[in-house]
Structure formats: C-alpha cells, structure tokens
Amino acid sequence: xxxxxxxxxxxxANLLTAAASTLSGVIVDRKGNPVEFASVRVSTAxxxxxxxxxxxxxxxxxxxxxxxxxxxxxxxxxxxxxxVSQPCNIxxxxxxxxxxxxxxxxxxxxxxxxxxxxxxxxxxxxxxxxSKEQTKHSWTGYELIRNLMIPGLNVNASSGEVAAFGGxxxxxxxxxxxxxxxxxxxxxxxxxxxxxxxxxxxKYAGDNAALNFIMKKRTSGGYISLDAxxxxxxxxxxxxxxxxxxxxxxxxxxxxxxxxxxLTDAELTRHESINFPSGSVGRDxxxxxxxxxxxxxxxxxxxxxxxxxxxLRATFNxxxxxxxxxxxxxxxxYSGLDAAGTFNVASSSATSSRGLKYSxxxxxxxxxxxxxxxxxxxxxxxxxxxxxxxxSESASSPISSDTKENYYDFSGSFSYGxxxxxxxxxVFKATENYNVSSATYSGTNSSWQHLWSSECIFFAEYSHxxxxxxxxxxxxxxxxxxYRVHGLRQSNPAGPRAQLVLALQPARNQFAxxxxxxxxxxxxxxxxxxxxxxVDMLQLRRGNPDLKQTRITKxxxxxxxxxxxxTFQLYGIFNAAWRLPMADYxxxxxxxVQSFYPYGNWRQYDTSLSVxxxxxxxxxxxxxxxxxxxxxxxxxxxxAACWKASxxxxxxxxxxxxxxxxxxxxxxxxxxxxxxxxxxxxxLSLSWTHNKLRAEAGTHNLFMRxxxxxxTLSTPAYDFRNTSYSPxxxxxxxxxxxxxxxxxxxxxxxxNNVDRNIGSGILRAD
Length: 766
Fold this sequence. Notes:
mainly beta; 22-stranded antiparallel β-barrel; disordered N terminus
C-alpha cells in the first residue's frame, strides 16, 4: 500500500512538469551592454493573461522554466528603457532562446509613475519600484524601505533594524552584502528598484529574508555630503561626512563620523528575594542618581572596481567606541540578614569601557558563462577592549574589576551557483567564522581567560520547478563547530542542517510559501568564559565552559496577495530549540551565583497579518497585527504571550512629508528567564526637501514623561520584580539637517559600510 502511494505521488509530480519547456536569453542595450536586473514577463497571446515572470542577473541573462506548449507574448522592461515585446511559440520540451535589445527612454520617471505598479511579483520575490514622492522624502536607505511599506517588513529607520518573519533581514546593494552605515548613507534618489526575497535563493541562499537595492549605474563624477542629527529631551547627536569619486569602472568612497549620547535621571525600582538555604534575604532598590555617557567615531575607505564579468571590493575601516561613565547610586533596604530587622545602606556602581577596532574586508563577485556565478569574501578585524567596574556599599569594602582584552575575528564565505535546463539550479555555499578572545581580569576576582571558537557551515541548494507556478528547493548541509576555553578540553560538535521550501505563485498577484528548517548554533564566547565577576555583596556572575550545541527547528507558512491598491501578507511561524543556554541561579560559599544552564528548551509561536494601502502616490498606509508566544522549559516553566499591533502612515505634500507610526507594548520571555513588558512607542515627523537640502523635525513618545518597562523573574533561588525608566524612551524631539554637493556628472550616493559594533568575549558584571 505504501509503495502504491509513493508511485502515485511520483507520477503526479512528473505530470506537473511534463511537456514543459524553458525560455531563456540575454537582455542588452543598443550598445550591446547587458541590462542588469531587467524584468521579463510572459503572457498568453490570445487574452494577455500573465503566466510567468523572471528577473535578469547582472549579465542580463534570464531564464524561466516549465512553460507549457502554446503561443505567448514575452516582454522585457527596465526603468530607464522602453519596454520591448516579442511573440514566443512553445511547441514541445525543446528549450527556446529569446533575446531582447532595449532602447533608453528620456521620459522614464513620468513613464514609471503612470504605468508601473509599485509591487511587482515574480517567482524570485517582490520587486518594489519607489514612487517619486517616496524617493524625494527619504534621505537614507532605511527611510526609503520604511516609506515603501512592504507588507510584513518591519523597519526602524533610526536604529537600522530591519526584520521579517521573526528574524533579521539581510541587506544587499547591487547583490553585495551591506551593513548599517552603508545603507544609512545610501542615497534614495539613486535607487532604481528594490528586490525583496521572502524565500531567498541563489546568492542569497541561507538568509532568513533578503532585500537588495539596485542602484542606477554611473561611471564618472562624485559627491560630498554632510548630515547632522541633534536630539532634545535627552542630549544626543550623530554627525557624518561622506564623499565618493568615480573614475571609469572604479569608485573610491570615504566616510567619517561621530556620535554621542548623554543620559541622566534614569530610574530603577526593584524588589528582590534571595532565597538562601538558611533563609530568605530581601532587598529593595531605589535610584538616587544616574549618569551615562557614550561616544563613538569611525572612518572608512573603500575601493570598488566593476566590469561586465566581475566586481571586486576592498574596505578598510576604523572604529572607536567608549562609555567613559555609567554611574548609578541607589538606596538599598535589606531585610532578613540578621536580627536587626530592616536597615538601609547607600550603594553605587560605576562602569566604564572603551574599544578600538581595525578591520579589512575583501570580496569578489564573478559572473561565469551560462548563468553560473562565484561569490567570495573574507574579512578580519583586531580589537582592543577595556572594561572597568566598581561597586560599593557603605561600611563595606568596594568590589572592583579591571579587564583588558585582545579580540580577533575572521570570517569567510564562498558560493558557487549554476543553472541547468528546464529551470533547475544548484548552489554550493560554505562559510567560516573564527573568533579569539584573550582577556586579563584584575581586581576582586583575578584570572586570565583565553577562548576561541570556530564554526564552518556548508550546504547545497537544489531548486526544481513545480508545474508553471512555483519551485521546490532542498538545502541539505552540515555545520562543524569547535570551541575551547584554555585549560579545558576542546569541544567539537557537528550536526546536519536541512531546509525544504515550496514557493508558489498561483497567479500574478499571489505568493505562497511553505518552509521547514533544521539546524544548530553554538553559544556566545562570553557565556563560555571561565571568569567570575562579583556583582555586589551577595551575587557573582560566571560563565559556563560546558555549554552544548543548540539544535534549532523552524516551520513557516506565508501567503501574500494584491487586490487593487491593497497588498497584504499573512504568515505563521513555529520555532523551537533544544539544549539552549538559559540563566541558572544557585548558591556557592554563601553567595548567589548566576551562570548558564546548558539544557534549556524553547518554543515560539508567531502569527501576523500585514496590510498596505496605497490609495494614491500622496498617501500610503500600513497596519500590522498578530499574536506572539515565547516559552522556555526544563525544570522551570517561563512563558509570555501577547497580542501585537503597529501602524505607519506617510502623507506627501509637495516639498513636505508627514510620517507617523505607533507600536503597541509586547510581553516577551528571554533566555535569562526574565519576562519583560515593553512600552508604547509612537513617532511623528515633518520633513522638507528641496534639491540637495533636507530638513526634518520630529518627536518620539510625545507627552510620555516616564514610560516604564516592567521585568519579572521567578526561580527557587532568586526572584525579583522591577520597573525601569530610561530618558531615551520619554518625550523627545529632534532636528536633522542634510546637504550634498555633486561634482562632475551625476553620481549614485551609496556605500557607507562601517560596522560600528566591536566584538568582545568579556564577561561583564553589569
């Protein structure tokens, strides 16, 4: 009986792809140069019903499979070019080649606004064409994708966080990886279109979701730009200088900038119980004074050379980050320590840190014949970090820690992709991440810690067309991990990885995806440290070198569609993890020790519906809502559940634009076993843009003077409930000014690729 079912399924699969052909070709301009990322659409010749679509690669090559016999009309289009259509006759399974030559259009902007839908669905993903208003009233790449209001894509334009399906969205510019500063300084006016991949494949294989900015092509000229952001309500600023120069196929980019933040009057109120075997001790905190100062500086030099066959890129950058002061003084009320009952003491904690990082990155993208490609990259950085911590209570000796660390990391990746007949493709991808931390801890608990970790991931992705409406992708692989704390045995866990994706486009305006994934990960270096940090008179913090490899699984279903001026996306996700590091509390020599337990289990359910409404080019709106559940299990059960919702509105009025957004609070459980309830967040901004000058004024959480987070923890050894307030969350206003000057021919303004995060394996006391 089972064999019969398998045979039926096999035959059904064959019927779906039987008597189907492949259509492929090359799209060039009148000079014979490839037209990168052009769109090809195939419709029936009799009634113009959309059948299938594809996007050309950087060599102008396109391919689409599983076209049934019949007469079709194939159209090739690209922004800046006149659309060309040709008849196409599919007779049998013989592959058909159809090339296109496009002519440049001198009236491209008005043509796009009048005739092109902003959301164009292809089997590869969603192509979004920014409107004139969205481009004009965006100054950064993050502002642009926020204004695009892609359903299901959550963008924080201030922090540079882009998320979808409960995870991070990988960002690319012209198919090459980009980070925060690169996208932050990208000029929206130079973006031709944006590709959003809900089910990444090819060079994007392995990403949770991917977004690629396709830039207009320039070969000469240059620019200089300045931007400044100043916040009021709390003292903070961000200032940047950028310049770029083109010389033929080579571009040179230089970026530099600085930022600072100064916060005062943060508040923390906490009641906690430490349940020693001999009896419970209670402590109540109440903040008297707080000060927090941070600043950072960066500089980057990048050289990129690109021709028809390959792109080469080299980047050197420098980052300095410092927190010269993080001071808190509090009144502590103890109870249960002795027969004296309740008594008060004054306490204070002071933290300072600084870090320097130098990094070099090299990458290359190579286009091979027949649609094959190679992507390779390598980067290395060296950091020097210092961390100081002092805690004191009246009538007690102070606790101190002075840590100096040398931190090194290396990462590399290699991808090779190939296409076959009938739309089949195969991609091999390998990545390596290697980190080393050597730290000297001085003070109350002195030690020397040397840690290193390595993770190598390899997988292959095979894509096979399913009828005329989708593709089936299988990605088997494995990861080999090694990590060691000096003086202890080396751990060498390895395990399989696999992903199965069924992506369907049953109609021109619809998309569906089913995905299952199994993989693994390893702990952060700071969690595996053998160091001990004393937090206060009763608590220690310690790493655990015996943490295990975490096993991860994920299942997801997505459906998206468009109807008139409404586009929506609905998804449901299930996440699970085993042997996950979780906070662990126990007693040792009369002290409460916080460490990490290696056998935690995690479950998450996440559902969301996102709807975008674009009644006109002057007004866009999006609303999203759903349900989120997080739960951690093993000996102790910690969970949180909440409904969530958000809304965004953009109104364009000539040179002015009004943006507003609101996000409801959420309730989240973390691996630290703390349940956190966040705050309401709402923003309002008004901007003015004219030529190369932009001014913007905005507010955050207007009329909210003291928005409090609440956090709770409940374990047999230790429990607390606190409310905390940071001035950065209260009512705040800001002013932003930006200006640019072009010289020579008009140029694209992009590429600020400075990663301002400095890696570290230090176990911190605060």
